[in-house]
Amino acid sequence: MQFDAELLLLAMAPVFLACIGWEAWHLRRTRPGAQLYSWRDTLCNAALALMQQAADKLAWLAIIPVYAFFYDRYRVYTWQASWMSFVVLFVAQDLLYYGFHRSSHRVRWLWAAHVVHHSSERMNFSTAFRQSLMYPIAGMWLFWIPLAVFGFPPKQIVAIVLINLGFQFFVHTQAIGKFGGKLGWLEYVFNTPSIHRVHHARNDRYIDRNYAGVLVIWDRLFGSYVEEDPHDAPVYGIVEPLHTYNPLKATFHEWASMAADFVSVRGWRNKLRALFAPPAWAAAYHARRAAGASADAAASSGDRRIEENHTAAFQTPRRP
Length: 320
What we know:
Blueprint: H1 5-30, H2 39-74, H3 83-106, H4 108-118, H5 135-138, H6 145-149, H7 154-168, H8 186-189, H9 193-200, H10 217-222, H11 247-264, H12 268-276, H13 279-313
Helix pairs in contact: 1-7, 2-11, 3-4, 3-7, 4-11, 11-12
C-alpha cells in the first residue's frame, strides 16, 4: 500500500484547527473557571510546532539516506505494498515508538528534547502541537532504523511515523472523558484521552506512565499502564516548572541545564549521569544544590547576626 502521509496530514490541518476551536469553546462554556486555554500558551505551542516542522523538513533530508543505506544493504526481507505490509509496519513502528517514548522519560539526553512537550501546565488539543526541533539532535530517528532492516522502504518509514504522531493529536484533551459501556474496550487496545492525560500528569502515581502512541497494549504488556483515577485529578506540567511562554526557552532550557550540570558535577561517572541518567537524577541534584545554598545562606545570615550582636555589646553606650 502506497500513501503520502505528508499530504494526508496537510489535509488534516483544518480538522486539527477546528478541534482546537471547538474544544476551547466547549471548555469555556462547560468549565468557565478552569482556564484550560490561554492565548499565550496556545501561541507558544503554535510557534513550537512551526519550528519543529521546519527542523524536521531539513532533518529528513539527512535521515532518509541513512534509512536507505540500511534498507539497501542489511534488510532481511522485502515487503510488497499491501494492506498486510501496512498493518505489520504500523504495529512494528508503534512498538518502536513505545521504546522511544519510554526511553525519552528515562534518559536525560532524550528528555532534553521531549520535555518541551510536557512543559505546559495545560492539557488541550493545542498541546499536541508542542514539539521540539531538537528531536533529530537527540536521536529520535535512530529508533526507526530496525524498520529499514526489517525491509520497509525509507519513505514508508517516514510516512508511518507521521501517521502515528497525527493520531496522537486526538488524545490531548480534557473534553472527552474515560470511555465506558460499549466503547470500554477501546481503553484496552488504543491510546485514549483518559490514558494520555495520565501520561502528561506529574502526580506521583501517574508520572512516567502510559507511553502509548496508538496501541496501549504495550503499556499493559510491559507494566507501565496506570488508569486515570477520578479521585486523583492529573496535575499537568513537569517536576521543575518552566514558568515561561518563550518558545526558545521552552526548546533549550533543559539542554542548558544539562550542560551546566555536566560542567558543575565532579567525576566522569557523575558527568555521564548528568547526560544520560533519568531526569529524576537531575531534579534530585538540583534539590540538593538548592538545599545547600539555603543552608549556606542561613549560616551566613546567622554569622552576621552574631557579629552584629558582638559588636553592639562592646560599643560605648551613649550618654543620656
